Amino acid sequence: MATPSIPHDRRSARLAIVEEHLRFENAHDLNGVLATFGDVADYDDEAWGEHHHGRENVRAFYAQLMTALPDLTIDVLRRHVTEEASHDSRYSPRSLARPSRNQPPG
Q1: 18 near 74, Cβ under 8 Å?
Q2: Taking the domains of the chain in order of start, what are their residue ranges?
Q3: What CATH number labels 8-70?
Q4: What pTM was computed for the model?
Q5: pLDDT tens, position by position, 75-86
Q6: CA-to-CA distance for 70 and 73, rounded, in angstroms?
Q7: Residue ranges of E strands in 46-85
């Protein structure tokens, strides 16, 4: 069964937010990243089985990430857009290993 297509203006708006979010991540602009979440901030890191609910928990996640990996950059390899969400398959060419949650930065 084919998935109904997203109206172009809605798809474009969604992708613009994703692009803005990625620019803020690459600039390590914590307030900018958080601004892209809108009224409700939830971040699910499925690969690590982590779920961060609420603005302060999402802020803490990104603050830890940006401190632990100060040279982290995100490059988009593939983009998947559906009616409900978009997802980027991404990687960091400079910070390939993610530190343990218990490991201090540096």
Answers
A1: no
A2: 8-70
A3: 3.10.450.50
A4: 0.70
A5: 888 777 776 665
A6: 9
A7: 50-53, 75-81
**Alpha-carbon gap, residue 78 to 76, rounded angstroms:** 6
Token pair 């474009």 in the structure block, residue: 12
Give dist(CA 54, CA 99) in Å, integer. Answer: 23
- Hey, what long-range contacts does 68-76 have (CB within 8 A, 24 or more apart)? 68/98, 68/99, 68/103, 68/105, 69/95, 69/98, 69/99, 70/28, 70/105, 71/95, 72/25, 72/26, 72/28, 73/26, 74/22, 74/25, 74/26, 76/22
- Report residue 14 as tokens: 């969604």
Which is it for strands 50-53 and 42-45: parallel, antiparallel or unpaired? antiparallel
Beta strand ranges found along the chain (DSSP E): 42-45, 50-53, 75-81, 86-91
